[in-house]
Specification:
The complex is a heterodimer of chains A (about 290) and B (about 260).
Chain A lengths: L2 H5 L5 H26 L5 H19 L3 H22 L5 H23 L6 H6 L7 H20 L1 H9 L1 H6 L4 H23 L4 H15 L3 H26 L3 H28 L6 H5 L1
Chain B lengths: L10 E10 L2 E11 L4 E5 L6 H9 L6 E6 L5 E4 L13 H6 L12 H13 L15 H13 L5 E5 L7 H16 L3 E6 L11 E6 L1 E6 L1 H4 L2 H8 L3 E6 L2 E6 L17
Parallel strand pairs in B: 3-7, 3-8, 5-6, 6-7
Antiparallel strand pairs in B: 1-2, 1-4, 8-9, 10-11
Classes of the chains: A mainly alpha (about 290), B alpha/beta (about 260).
Chain lengths: ~290, ~260
């Protein structure tokens, strides 16, 4: 394989667009995924992307802008999950995610079957269309990425405190309900702009894999944020290139690149990495050990 | 109750009643915490100890009665060590710094760095700043969370079961540290299950079983009568070196035979 061969796809504008989007989306999901994984909500990415599909169908039916309609729908679903979990402690967040997001996905399927999808291709949303991204998709993703970076940067401590220790954070004067709502907004916007290019079914992996790989490599929160962002961007960049050369759709290739990286780091870090990443919530045994 | 003198109360709970659902958890509870106080709250599981802490902190709103806080009161809270997520990726330095509000940027200012270093130095943790919180001894872990609370320069330190699940050496270490901090003027209020190892050593106790059964000096409060009302189980109180020692009184004919103290298991 020559350098020429490697550089050939860069002659195509559609490829460069796709590469930009994949790298940006990877970085964005890597960053947001750190909080998702540490809150023990790894499944929320999978759930919210399905929920947003309901919002897509509803906005197509009502003829409103996809980003606004589906975004508001996604945010409302995430707030409902928080609300259900807070009000009824007997219902865990995993169960709340299962109920609300699947119901929302079902609404989406029902609406599309009954009323059509308003000219937008539902398949593209389900499985991604990274090579056919429009300028508005790129712009939306870029705006959300910058906004998320700003939120993480300027709310670093309140976000960290309420992720690690919500009760003490509240006592210490952190407005945890507002911080949670802000994070939910960031999460919904990230998933919305990413699923548009990667597809409903693959968003979850881009949120979880970079964060888990980063966790195996460091014990510091600050370093984990930086590492997960870089790993996410790298998986997007490498995955897109492999997708061209191996002629495999870009969404699956990006996820497979991440999975391969996970396997390598998992094996290389051995027991130390395992202990760091394993059983993120299981800590009782560690105390007596 | 006080070590520092009877000035204005930091916190005053006046006939406070709290309820979760229809179940009352605290009923007509009066508690005063003054500067320099060192108070232990004892009671069985479900007696409302943690709810009392939450009412003091203001994260639970009473349905009756009032909680009066001195204006501008700074409260530090140390959670039960068993509730901490030990797999969360934070180093000792990051853990202590996260409680510091005010600054927008992720990294600490020079003044904050100095404050973190000072508080860690004071608690003997300065050399461990880059360690992950799991890679510490039990006493060190407890001190990290005390350091985090102290960074806010509180006038009142609240601790939920600071000695639950820790060994004897750690318990002594924690009690010595708290005594030192209290000697420096910090008011401390903690909950505990440990009557002999912790409660009997404190200057003041509150015996809680949804309502306050008794409060005051342990020598006066730790009596078979009060303990039975608090725990709903018969207990005897012996005396050793001027300190009350509480022992279980098992009903006669019980098949459980406790082994004599010091024998091998």
């Amino acid at each position: 394989m020559t350098l020429d061969h490697l550089l050939r796809p860069f002659e195509f504008e559609f490829f460069i667009n796709g590469l930009t989007v994949a790298t940006l989306a990877g970085a964005l999901c890597g960053l947001v995924g750190v909080y998702v994984v540490l809150k023990g909500m790894s499944y929320i990415g999978h759930g919210l992307s399905h929920a947003i599909f309901g919002g897509f169908a509803a906005s197509a039916l009502l003829g409103i802008n996809f980003f606004l309609g589906a975004g508001a729908w996604g945010f409302a679903s995430a707030m409902m999950i928080n609300g259900v979990t807070r009000r009824r402690r007997a219902i865990g967040s995993d169960a709340a995610i299962g109920v609300i997001t699947t119901a929302s996905f079902a609404i989406g399927l029902a609406l599309i079957k009954r009323y059509g999808s308003g000219g937008k291709n539902p398949d593209a949303l389900l499985f991604g269309q990274i090579l056919g991204v429009s300028d508005s998709d790129v712009l939306a993703l870029a705006i959300v990425t910058v906004a998320t970076a700003l939120v993480v940067f300027f709310c670093y401590r309140p976000l960290l405190f309420s992720t690690f220790d919500p009760e003490v954070a509240e006592v210490s004067g952190v407005p945890t309900a507002r911080v949670d709502a802000l994070f939910t907004l960031v999460l919904a916007a990230s998933i919305l702009t990413t699923m548009n290019v990667l597809g409903v079914t693959l968003v979850a992996a881009t949120l979880v894999i970079p964060a888990v790989v980063a966790r195996m490599l460091t014990d510091s929160f600050g370093r984990m944020l930086v590492l997960a962002t870089i790993i996410g961007a790298l998986c997007g960049f490498v995955g897109m290139n492999l997708s061209y050369h191996l002629d495999i759709p870009s969404g699956p290739m990006i996820v497979l690149t991440g999975s391969a990286l996970f396997a390598v780091v998992f094996a290389a870090t051995g027991r130390r990495g395992l202990r760091r990443a394993g059983a993120l919530r299981d800590h009782a045994g560690e105390l007596t050990a | 109750m006080t070590r520092g003198g009877g000035s204005e109360a930091l916190i005053r709970l006046d006939r406070v009643t709290c309820r979760y659902g229809t179940e009352p958890v605290l009923v007509n509870v009066d508690v005063d915490v003054r500067p320099g106080d060192f108070i232990g709250v004892v009671g069985p599981s479900g007696s409302g100890k943690t709810t009392l802490l939450r009412a003091i902190m203001g994260t639970v709103t009473p349905i009756a009665g009032s909680v009066r806080r001195r204006a501008g009161l700074r409260v530090g809270y140390v959670p039960q060590i068993e509730t901490v997520n030990w797999n969360f990726p934070v180093t000792v330095g990051e853990c202590v710094l996260m409680a510091r509000g005010g600054r927008r940027l992720p990294w600490p200012s020079r003044a904050e760095k100095a404050d973190v270093h000072d508080v860690l130095e004071r608690l003997g943790l300065a050399h461990l700043q880059e360690r992950h919180i799991r890679c510490l001894s039990g006493g060190q872990q407890q001190r990290v969370f005390i350091a985090r609370a102290l960074l806010r320069q509180p006038e009142l330190l609240l601790m939920d079961e600071p000695t639950a699940g820790v060994d004897v050496a750690t318990r002594h270490e924690v009690l010595h540290l708290l005594d030192e901090l209290n000697g420096g003027g910090l008011a401390v209020l903690l909950t505990t299950h440990d009557l002999n190892g912790v409660a009997a050593h404190l200057p003041a106790l509150v015996c809680l079983n949804r309502e306050v059964v008794a409060s005051g000096d342990p020598a006066r409060v730790l009596t078979p009568d009060v303990l039975e009302k608090t725990y709903g189980a018969p207990m005897d109180v012996l005396e050793h070196a001027g300190m009350p020692i509480v022992v279980d009184r098992l009903p006669p004919g019980n098949v459980v035979r406790m082994p004599p103290r010091g024998s091998a298991r």
